[in-house]
Structures are given as structure tokens and as C-alpha cells.
Amino acid sequence: MREVTPTRSTAIELADERKLMRQGYEFLDEKRMLLATEMLRQLKLYQERSDEFVAATKRAAQALAAAVERHGFDQLQLYPTPAPPVIPDTERTLFLGLVMLSAGEPPKPEALVAAAIDPSPEVKACRAAFETLLWASADLAARTGNLNRIAREYRRTERRARALEKVLLPEVEEAIKMIDEQLDMMEREEAIRARWASPCSPSFLS
Questions:
Q1: How many domains does the chain have?
Q2: 20 is a domain residue
């Protein structure tokens, strides 16, 4: 418990401090609720993107198997690729000062640097499947980062709110209560001394 001087001015200062603490707690409590709501929304998006990533991985594996079966692994390695490799663009939004990322729109096929010697539907499907997988993995990574940032901010806000609710506010309340009790006691003692010191009191007349 903090040490305070039992005066009226100290009681007023502590009352003002308590008011500010309560306002701060209300703000943190509201922020905590908003973060929890956004965390659930981001978790739902993460689960959706995770399912899409798993499905894209399976499609890419199947397309690769079909292309290898058609051309062989050595010939497939010589198939021309886009230049430069397609990297998904990142979209940024802000939520309570936190950066929320996403991979944006799925990529559009890029032109090949050279014509394929033996083009086939299997190779085209394999290329498209892995481009989709690249976008899905980038978006899933962005959603994972979003969840980590929100969870970290939620824990920080939770600690501050609990410190106000469980430690600081009770300390101020206890200090105000102690000051009020001591001031009441001092006023009663002063009233008793004034009564006994009065010339009209029975003790003075006797």
C-alpha cells in the first residue's frame, strides 16, 4: 500500500487519480473486446486460408505427378518459367494501429521467357497449380502474422487492464478509505478538544 499524508488535498488528488484510472481501464477494456473480436475474425480467415493451402498443395502434387508422368522429371526441369518469378503483392490495412496483411488478388499467369519445345496441358496445369500454391502460402503466412500481432497486443492490453483493475485501483481505493477514516478521526478528536476547552463546558465550571 502506498504511503500518503492524510489531508483533504491528498484525498482530492487521489480521487482525481482514481477517476483517470477508471477511464483508462474502460478504454483498455473496450480495446480488449475489439481485439478479441478481430482475433476471432482473423482466426476464421486463417482457417479458411489454411484449408485452401492444403487443397492447393494436393492439387499441385497431383498436377506435378501428371506432368512428370507425361514428360519425365528431367524434361520437366527444362520447361521454361516466367521471368521474374511471380511474387504475390501484399495489401496492408490498419486495425487499432496494427498492420494487417493479406496477399491481395491471386496472381495472373506471366508470359514465358521462351516457347516450350513440347507444350502440354499437364505442364500448363502444373505451372498454374504451383502459382496458386505460391499465392496461398503467402496469404497464409500473412494471416499467421496478423494473428501473432493481435495476440501480442491483446496480451499487452490484458496485462495493463488487470494491473489497473487488480492492483492500482484497489491501492488508490484503500488509500482514499484510509485518509477518510483518519480525517474523520482527527475531526472527532478536534471536536472533543474544542468542547473540553470551551469556557461553558461543565469541566471548566467545576
A1: 1
A2: yes
pTM, two decimals, is 0.71
For cell 512428370, the residue is 68
- The residue range of the domain holding 35 is 8-180
CATH label of the domain that carries residue 153: 1.10.287.3240
On whether residue 56 sits in a domain, the answer given is yes
Q: Cell numbers of 129, please? A: 497449380
Q: How far apart are CA 47 and CA 115, in angstroms?
A: 39
Does a structural domain hold residue 203?
Answer: no
Which residue type is seen at 109?
P
In a domain, 190, yes or no: no
Tally of CB atoms within 10 A around 139: 24
**What does each C-alpha distance from 100 to 44, 82, 149, 154 come to in angstroms?**
14, 29, 9, 15
Could you list the pLDDT tens digit for every one of the 206 residues in the chain? 556 677 888 888 889 999 999 999 999 999 999 999 999 999 999 999 999 999 999 999 999 999 999 888 888 887 776 655 555 667 888 888 888 888 777 666 665 555 667 778 888 888 889 888 888 888 898 899 999 999 999 999 999 999 999 999 999 998 888 888 888 888 787 777 777 766 555 554 44
DSSP secondary structure letters along 156-182: HHHHHHHIIIIIIHHHHHHHHHHHHHH
